[in-house]
Amino acid sequence: MSSGYGVFLSEFWNNFHTPGAIAPSSRWLADALTKHVPSSKEAAPRRILEVGPGTGAVTAALVRRLAPQDSLTLVELNDRFVEHLRGRFAREPEFQAVHARAEIVHDRLENLPVNQPFDVIVSGLPLNNFSVDAVQQILATLERLLPVGGRLSFFEYIAVRAARGAVSLGAERRRITGITRALRATFARHDHGRDWIWPNLPPAWVHHLCKVAG
Ligand SMILES: C[S@@+](CC[C@H](N)C(=O)[O-])C[C@H]1O[C@@H](n2cnc3c(N)ncnc32)[C@H](O)[C@@H]1O
After folding, report:
1. pLDDT higher than 80, residue 17
2. Which of 19, 46, 175, 178 is deepest in the core (most CB within 10 A)?
């Protein structure tokens, strides 16, 4: 089974807003996004959430790192991507190996119940494409789903937000400024680090957040 480039591209053309990317994440971006899921057979059980798995480029890195005691939840709203992911779990050996410990939730992240937090969250959501309200709601949901010491990793394309802000006017400029404020406030409440991933289309920053007490 392919990594789903054709499905991804067709959803990009049909509905740019929610895929929000021209291509699935590269292997290097997937590795950076999943770096807080080290493969370890001895670690305590981990609850792992992937948000917006799309065709499963990052999921493929996650399933390889999953220990027998871990569980993986995928939340994806796009019908065709959900169907494609179900096919991968049914047919691809590395996905099949963890099928019993993986759950695909066909819904928006914002509708996930927040009473069962996740140790690690990896998000592929294209925040820079959304309204300020949507970004605030998504960030608030992610924070609620993360316990103290929990890790959140997500990406954005390098400098694209600043470039869009610099060339836009009016409502679009206010939207970009609002997203920047929301992200800065979230970074300030967490331990925050950033990786630069050049081999990706386009190159990306991966933000890594760790929730701190208080
Ligand atoms: C940029 S793509 C990332 C796909 C994949 N993770 C990758 O890196 O190749 C964003 C994905 O997020 C999904 N998505 C967008 N908004 C969402 C939401 N509110 N809840 C869950 N999934 C969402 C889209 O359908 C799409 O699959």
Report:
1. no
2. 19
